């Protein structure tokens, strides 16, 4: 898909904070280097690669020679699922101190996601190419108290200026996590696709935004004929309720057979502009806010 001049202007400098480039246990449509090369089509500034199973920082560092001449920069992060030891502050330290930008709390290992997964398989949800064990990674101990690792991780994230992401936690758990993050000085907190898997309500999203949390909506979920699918009116409802200043767009794409991130960004940006959103607001959600969250202003 080609961007119109107006859309190309709005998207220049875009940052994708949620890209599923490979390698990963889930089959991927493209690797980190190809994702960066494709980003150059719309003068994308950067993307953060997300794997549900391992820190992507070392992948990207190992491929540094292959990024020569590519304008779009690649960054990594870590998801606190079983495969990295769950709530493992030492794995978090390693990731962010080597340049990782996002720490996602459990996704596939969250109790919320495990409960969701059987239904999701019937919708064509991806499965790992290798057999992996999944058990719930919980943020509470057997007595219902928050595990001390939560605060430790929040401290590491705050020190690094990284993003604390709620992953696929239950909304109640997200509120507790973000409260700890705020208390520990975390400045960048995010809830990804709040209306999918975690099933955050609009009202809960507004309450999180009032705590300083950004709502990350995924352009990959607003593409006709693909699953999961939400009508663009759902996105507009969330933006109107939470506000442009606490909303941004990412892709959540890279799965085999799905639309590539660049094309999805072009499609959704076009839809929002066609619905009367001012260019400055669309640019804020695609460029300005994720650029702030990336926290890489001092990097060339």
TrEMBL record:
Name of the featured protein: Uncharacterized protein
SUPFAM superfamilies: Metallo-dependent hydrolases
Species whose genome carries this gene: Microbacterium faecale
Highest taxon in the source lineage: Bacteria
Native organism taxonomy: Bacteria, Bacillati, Actinomycetota, Actinomycetes, Micrococcales
InterPro entries hit by this protein: DUF6282, Metal_Hydrolase
Pfam families hit by this protein: DUF6282
